[in-house]
Specification:
The chain is of the alpha/beta class. It contains ten helices and five strands. Helix 5 runs antiparallel to helix 6.
Length: about 280
């Protein structure tokens, strides 16, 4: 089996596992109950067809667990592309105390306005340069657990760390990710070659159009080189064409689950054009 075919199989295994769990949840463990819905929300039930809320019931039980799936797919991509990937990998190193102080200082400035009410705009390279200049004889051992670790099996043996978040992350988790990435770049000797803040896809389309405000407090999402969004991330960890390979692999099994959702969950036959986009 070729590397590409093996990646497709692994992708489909991850998606199959997710979808079987979701279908079991919405059909057996936690089904939509019309009578209960009408009792709790009589006004809504009187005005809006049950099918609308039934769809929302499914969506909530699908979207939440999908967050963990991105990390698993990233490991699949890393194994097929760079050569090795692992979830929640611990990276141990040493950082001098002045660099740690400066990391805290930089994050505080981004989080809080100055006494004059001015806000500091994120600038990754400027911040990192300032922090790296910090020197102290006090050395502190640090452990950073990254979301996804990857290592090249090529001759260069380069090591990568990724903080992989949902496409619309909140501010707190982004702050934590930035602190972790800064620490990784401040370790001496360095334990990784590259570290990134990554989003699996861009709901706004182009990188220049990304406008979710919460992560923008900590990163310049349009310009910081430490930020990877969509294809940038997948090509870094899996090689050129990786994201499209995901789409193609999922499309192959999409019909099976769409049909199940229409018939078993919604209780209707799929419309004539239900599978057009999967062709």
């Amino acid at each position: 089996m070729s590397n590409k075919d093996n990646m497709k199989v692994k992708i489909q295994e991850v998606i199959h596992t997710l979808m079987e769990r979701v279908m079991n949840k919405v059909l057996y463990e936690d089904p939509f109950k019309k009578d209960e819905h009408k009792a709790k929300k009589p006004l809504y039930a009187a005005l809006v067809p049950d099918e609308i809320f039934k769809g929302s019931h499914f969506e909530r039980r699908f979207v939440t667990p999908f967050g963990n799936v991105w990390e698993k797919l990233a490991v699949v991509a890393a194994n097929a592309g760079l050569g090795f990937g692992q979830l929640h990998y611990s990276i141990e190193g040493k950082i001098n105390s002045e660099r740690l102080r400066r990391i805290t200082q930089v994050l505080n400035k981004l989080e809080h306005s100055s006494p004059q009410g001015e806000k500091t705009k994120p600038d990754w390279q400027k911040e990192l340069n300032y922090i790296i200049e910090g020197e102290s004889t006090e050395i502190i051992p640090i452990t950073v657990i990254c979301d996804v670790y990857a290592e090249s099996k090529q001759q260069d043996k380069r090591k990568f760390a990724f903080e992989l978040k949902a496409p619309l992350p909140n501010s707190d988790q982004t702050k934590v990710s930035k602190e972790k990435i800064l620490k990784l770049y401040c370790m001496e000797p360095k334990q990784i070659d590259e570290a990134y803040y990554a989003l699996p896809y861009n709901p706004y389309g182009e990188r220049n159009n990304y406008s979710w405000s919460f992560p923008a407090r900590w990163f310049n999402m349009k310009e910081d080189e430490v930020v990877l969004i969509g294809d940038e991330f997948w090509e870094k960890i899996g090689g050129k064409g990786t994201y499209q390979a995901f789409i193609d692999a999922v499309n192959e099994i999409g019909r099976e689950y769409k049909e199940k959702i229409y018939k078993d969950f919604l209780g209707i036959e799929p419309p004539a054009d239900a599978f057009d986009e999967l062709k």
